[in-house]
Structure prediction request, 270 residues.
Amino acid sequence: MFFVRPLLFRRSINKGRQTAFRMNLRLFHHFGTYILWHSQIYKKPESHAMYYKETIRQMYDIGIGSFPIVFLISIFIGAVTVVQFYYQMEGTLIPPYYIGYIVRDMEIIELAPTITCLVLAGKVGSNMAAELGGMRQKEHIDAMDIMGVNTSAYLVMPKIIAALLMIPVLVSASALIGIIGGYLSSVPTGLFTSAEFIKGVRSFFIPYNVFMMFVKAFVFAYILTSVSCYQGYFVKGGSIELGEASTRAVVYSDILILMADYVIALILTA
Prediction:
């Protein structure tokens, strides 16, 4: 009995090590495939007219199709941020107009690009993964490959271009809507006057913060689009695997966006 327990313990440790090794090996495999896949995406288009039409369609889906959810989330985030800061600063010696200044910079630097792209990873990213995964399962991609179409470029490049064009626009709109939401939640309710809020929004403005916002928007847009397309393009199996690929697209995109957010903050604020 005394010899059986250590033996079982060693076997469980060895099994855990083997599982961790397989997971790391699978991670490096997917990372290498993802990097090499980019050489196929950016090849010369077979027909510029087809790529242009597909890019316009993707721009409409990403931009106009995502605006309602971005508007709703942004206005409530701005409203809640102002209310929470007013609660924290009430009774202190800090002037009330500082709340407008803090909310403006928080929206521009962090909330607008990060929260918007995390939401878009769930809406746009899962949709891209499901679209490409469905085409893979129905063998539409294989049929296009046989016809001589570079499916990696035709199906992915317009999505990336559309995301790089439209997501920064959505992020800019999110920052503006968030500030407006803060105004609507504070001035009509009597937390402080309109002049105080506007004075805070106009105080201590640094244009470099807007540059930082757009850097984050472009990087996050590329991450959520390319990762989601990769998960859908290389999906294998049936409907269960397609659902898992859509889930991985959202989860991996969110994780990479948060990691990139930290790295960009370190580099641009150093």
